[in-house]
Amino acid sequence: MEEFGLADTGKRPFKAYSKGMKRKLTIAAGIIHAPTILFLDEPTTGIDVESARQIRKLVKNLNDGGTTIFLTTHYIEEAERLCSRVGFIVDGKVVRIDSIGNLMKDYKKEYVIEFTLENHDLSLNETMIQAFPGVKVEQINNQKIRVIPQEKTALAPFIKFFEDSHKSVYEARIIRPTLEDVFVKITGIEIAKMKKEKEDKKK
Q: d(Cα 182, Cα 76) in Å, to the nearest integer?
């Protein structure tokens, strides 16, 4: 109870606890006998930020102490932060399972530049593809695009291209791939669908 910050509320009935407190108490009950293997089903879904942070810290401490933990989560950034091995499940089937390092290895080779521009329009994308053969262009919104060259390249030619097209460049930055990017590429599931599933879980 002390480790979970529940010592002061230990005499209150379970139904009087908040959702975050209930989640912490059920996890405490699950580890009171010091199991060597622990299964956690979406332990941080639908709770407040502070409680989620406490639970993530606890999971990491348990794992560092030798407990093997099987964790299911819709939050890929959580899996990337806590897990050494990750399995991607789509429609009830495991489509890939590997270490974080191996999953990221192939995608770290990609070189992606994100530009924030003044009122970018789609017609400029085609012109850019013609000006830079082999370059892929992804439209994020009406101000942001992502440029994917075949290899690492200088920013100056792209910035000059925008200036010649009378578009001001407000920001240019290198985008590092995340585990979420890897998930989308392996499974084909779009980010929008993932976000909708997260929201449905909260309801």
A: 10
Tokens linked to 94: 């495991």
pTM as predicted: 0.63
H or E element at residue 109: none
CATH assignment of 112-175, given 3.30.70, 1.10.287, 3.20.20, 3.10.20?
Answer: 3.30.70
Q: Domain 7-105 sits in which CATH superfamily?
A: P-loop containing nucleotide triphosphate hydrolases (3.40.50.300)
Cα–Cα distance, 36 to 64 (Å, whole number): 12
pLDDT band at 97 (very low <50, low <70, confident <90, very high): very high
* Strand 37-41 to 93-99 pairing: unpaired
The tally of CA atoms less than 13 A away on the side-chain side of residue 66 is: 3
Residues 6+ apart with CB under 8 A from 42: 72, 73, 74, 201
Between 167 and 37, name the one with better pLDDT: 37
* 83: pLDDT strictly greater than 70: yes
Q: At what angle do helices 49-64 and 19-31 cross, to 10 degrees?
A: 10
Closest residue by Cα to residue 113 from 128, 100, 101: 128
Mean per-residue pLDDT, 175-191: 78
Convert the pLDDT of each residue in 144-166 to its tens digit: 888 888 888 888 899 899 889 88
How far is CA 151 from its chain centroid?
A: 25
